[in-house]
Design a protein that fits this description.
The protein is of the alpha+beta class and 122 residues long. 48% of the residues lie in helices and 12% in strands. Strands 2-1-3-4 form a 4-stranded mixed β-sheet. The protein is globular, with a radius of gyration of 13 Å.
């Protein structure tokens, strides 16, 4: 598994915001992180979908972050699609802002679980 350095936000439905290795300049990654953290989900989508991102279709960090942005906008169908795509992408270890590390697939699975409403069983 490849290591990707990232940032985590408590307000985000998923756990990680990571910069894809050699795909996005560090300033683009910081811009997306700042947008997600500030709740500017539309700008985060714009940054994450920028034409200069190389091989972005198979980058699980980008896909998870797009899921975070769409979930933040209340667009759960799109969020679920991006989290699902992240699960199918090559697995990477993401370094989170709290210093922990996690599998991109596990992060995507947990994010998808957070989209599903839970109901108490009687």
């Amino acid at each position: 598994m490849a290591m990707v350095i990232g940032f985590a936000f408590a307000a985000a439905p998923a756990i990680a915001l990571a910069q894809p290795q050699q795909a996005v300049s560090s300033s683009d990654g910081r811009l997306a992180a700042a947008s997600l953290q500030a709740g500017d989900f539309e700008n985060a989508v714009k940054v994450l979908n920028a034409d200069r991102i190389i091989d972005s279709a198979s980058d699980p960090a980008r896909l998870i972050n797009l899921g975070n942005a769409y979930a933040g906008m209340g667009r759960m169908k799109e969020a679920r699609a991006y989290y699902s795509a992240a699960r199918a992408a090559p697995d990477m270890t993401l370094a989170l802002a709290d210093g922990s590390e996690a599998s991109s697939r596990q992060i995507a699975i947990r994010a998808m679980e957070r989209l599903s409403p839970s109901y108490a069983m009687r």
